[in-house]
């Protein structure tokens, strides 16, 4: 992954006594370029650790060991893990979260590339900081600050998390494969991919009604429409079982 460093003056060095325990997903309400200049200006007094563009660009504005200024305001939070001091005061969530901005606005569709890139970035963060990749630890900004719709109406956080987990299993070689030869027929035009999930690169495309031979399958691929079974071919390509019969 190619990360461009564009360090912002808007951050607090270190994290007091805290460390990253959760990841906050934001939408830029604008372009990556506009966000670059906004975060690089000391006048804005805001930042995030990363910005992800629609074409998969990744810009880093603040180091993960430092505190970015992305989720410091709290209003009617719905996030169950929000921290309070013993006397009931909210602790600034910036100290214990990593913030990722995404290109677009609250009504724009996320590209597959932006999903895949963000998932890869999050997966590495989860590994670095031992953050569980689940819905409690990967949250939308509005779960802290309910006056905002950030990250908008189009992003599917469950899908993002599934991509994070799909890749983690495959990268660590933890998916269990069952070797079993067979043949199936494609129901629709179907993508073959480098791994068992939509996060993986498309390696080939086959039309409907084509017979495909497989060498085996896993039940631990990305869950699509409730189905996580993916076949693999002799060449090491993968395809989703829901697209064949
Ligand atoms: Zn936000």
Automatic annotation (TrEMBL):
InterPro entries: Amidase/PGRP_sf, Amidase_domain, NAMLAA_amidase_2. Pfam families: Amidase_2. Its EC number is 3.5.1.28. The keyword Cell wall biogenesis/degradation applies. GO terms for molecular function: N-acetylmuramoyl-L-alanine amidase activity. SMART domains: Ami_2. Keywords: Cell wall biogenesis/degradation, Hydrolase. Signal peptide: none annotated. It is an enzyme of class 3 (hydrolase). SUPFAM superfamilies: N-acetylmuramoyl-L-alanine amidase-like. It catalyses: Hydrolyzes the link between N-acetylmuramoyl residues and L-amino acid residues in certain cell-wall glycopeptides. Residues 8-152 form the N-acetylmuramoyl-L-alanine amidase domain. The keyword Hydrolase applies. It comes from the Bacteria. GO terms for biological process: cell wall organization; peptidoglycan catabolic process; peptidoglycan turnover. This is N-acetylmuramoyl-L-alanine amidase. It comes from Niastella caeni.
């Amino acid at each position: 992954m190619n990360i461009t460093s564009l360090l912002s003056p808007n951050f607090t060095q270190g994290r007091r006594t805290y460390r990253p325990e959760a990841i906050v997903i934001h939408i830029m309400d604008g372009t990556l370029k506009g966000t670059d200049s906004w975060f690089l200006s000391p006048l804005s007094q805001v930042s995030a650790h990363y910005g992800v563009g629609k074409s998969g660009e990744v810009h880093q504005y603040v180091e993960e060991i430092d505190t970015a200024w992305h989720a410091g305001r709290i209003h009617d939070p719905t996030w169950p893990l929000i921290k309070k001091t013993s006397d009931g005061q909210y602790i600034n969530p910036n100290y214990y979260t990593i913030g990722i901005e995404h290109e677009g606005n609250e009504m724009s569709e996320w590209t597959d590339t932006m999903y895949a890139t963000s998932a890869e970035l999050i997966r590495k963060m989860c590994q670095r900081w031992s953050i569980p990749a689940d819905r409690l630890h990967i949250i939308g900004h509005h779960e802290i600050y309910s006056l905002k719709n950030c990250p908008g109406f189009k992003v599917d956080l469950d899908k993002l998390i599934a991509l994070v987990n799909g890749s983690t299993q495959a990268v660590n070689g933890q998916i269990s494969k069952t070797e079993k030869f067979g043949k199936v027929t494609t129901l629709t035009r179907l993508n073959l991919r480098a791994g068992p999930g939509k996060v993986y690169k498309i390696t080939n495309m086959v039309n409907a009604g084509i017979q495909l031979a497989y060498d085996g399958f896993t039940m631990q691929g990305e869950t699509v429409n409730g189905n996580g079974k993916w076949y693999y071919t002799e060449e090491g390509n993968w395809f989703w079982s829901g697209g064949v019969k």
